[in-house]
Amino acid sequence: MLNTKRWSVDLKKDLSTYYPQIKQAALLLQQNEVVAFPTETVYGLGANAKETEAVKKIYEAKGRPSDNPLIVHIAEVQQLHEFAQIENEKVKTLMDAFWPGALTLVLPCKPGILSKQVTAGLSTVGVRMPDHPVALELIRAAGLPIAAPSANRSGKPSPTLADHVASDLDGRIAGIVDGGSTGIGVESTVVSCIDEIPVILRPGGITKEALEEVVGTVNVDPGLTKKDEAPVSPGMKYTHYAPEAQMYMFHGSDEEMQCHIQKYQAEGLKVGVLTTEEKKEWFAADVVFSCGRREKPETVAANLYRVLRQFDETDVDLIISETFSEQGVGSAIMNRLQKAAGGRNLSSLK
Ligand code: TXA
Ligand code: MG
């Protein structure tokens, strides 16, 4: 058991107030320890991307399969040239438009710089510059490229609060920098820039629509939607984000969803419902949680993982979730919900 240090940063105050704490966290990274930190998407679990000794500790703390590569986080574009190649103009256009921000670019990796554990044996590397003052200052202070997956135990919903990190990883990591709640709430969009036309490997905080406005056509990895094709991004093949109770995605009318709730309750099961502000008074179930406003999908993204974790504090036997439009950030929301539900869907009883 490690004694996990915790530092709190109040973002309303001048960041320089916290430079000493951030320095301590950076020192641990330089010593090849792992430290969790806030980003604008979810909390990340950081380690020195150049040292296998450090990167191994990420996989151990998370219980993560070793064939799933990590995203390397940088604070300045200059850092990227050491370990990745920029081979087309579109990459520069995307970096200019969206960095710092919730966009991970998969690029050809230069050999011999990063630990092989980071790329899990691939010849490419995912890179992103997070749009969060604490993350940027921590990476700058460490002076290293920082490998960082989401700071949850493998399979659990990603953490959007430092308390989520602590509940999964306390005693397993060297430290947690607490910067309050993360903003976007779902992870970055992962885009492969290996071929001429960029391909979305994981939908996320930056929408397909926003990407296309800047670089024209962007494709979506068919493995994300087709059952018989393996996704290019190794992480997308695992069940993920799952609450402890089995979850089902419901497709149909509110009345039909209520029929399902009553059917399960008649079998003696406790039913949880994942819904929105607009409908939370409407459903009668054992537990009803709202994850935001249907009209404002960004609010749903921001609250989604927190609410999935909240179900674990209840005694529901199953969860029935509403479905959302796949427009804009809705595509990331539906991708995460489908993974949390392990592909289990319910429709009309008739
Ligand atoms: O918002 C985020 O991206 C957060 C924060 C902490 O930055 N990080 C994050 O990392 O979500 P992680 O490890 O939970 O998810 C990384 C995803 C996985 O699905 C992984 O398979 C994919 O990115 N990935 C990483 N490198 C890749 C590569 N070279 N080729 C294809 N997919 C890659
Ligand atoms: Mg993750």
User: What is the oligomer described by this structure?
Assistant: single chain
Q: State the end-to-end CA separation.
A: 53 Å
What is the share of helical residues?
25-40%
Q: Order of strands across the biggest sheet?
A: 1-8-2-3-7-4-6-5-9-10-11
Q: What gross morphology would you assign?
A: globular
Strand content: 15-25%
What structural category arises from helix and sheet content?
alpha/beta
- Rounded to an integer in angstroms, the radius of gyration calculated over CA atoms is 20 Å
Order of helices and strands: EHEEHEHHEHEHEHEEEHEEHEEHEHE
**Beta strand count:** 16
Number of helices: 11
Residue ranges: pLDDT <50 for 5 or more in a row? none
The overall average pLDDT, rounded, is 95
Largest sheet: 11 strands, mixed
Spell out which ligands are present.
threonylcarbamoyladenylate, magnesium ion
Strand-helix topology:
Layout: E1 5-8, H1 19-30, E2 35-37, E3 44-48, H2 52-62, E4 71-73, H3 77-80, H4 89-98, E5 103-108, H5 116-119, E6 124-128, H6 133-142, E7 146-147, H7 162-169, E8 175-178, E9 189-192, E10 199-202, H8 208-215, E11 219-220, E12 246-251, H9 254-266, E13 271-275, E14 287-290, H10 297-311, E15 318-321, H11 330-340, E16 345-347
Parallel strand pairs: 1-8, 2-8, 4-6, 5-9, 10-11, 12-15, 12-16, 13-14, 13-15
Antiparallel strand pairs: 2-3, 3-7, 4-7, 5-6, 9-10
Helix pairs in contact: 1-6
The protein binds threonylcarbamoyladenylate and magnesium ion.
Threonylcarbamoyladenylate (TXA) binds at residues 39, 41-42, 44, 68-71, 104, 106, 119, 122, 124-126, 128, 130, 148-150, 187-188, 190, 201-202, 232-236.
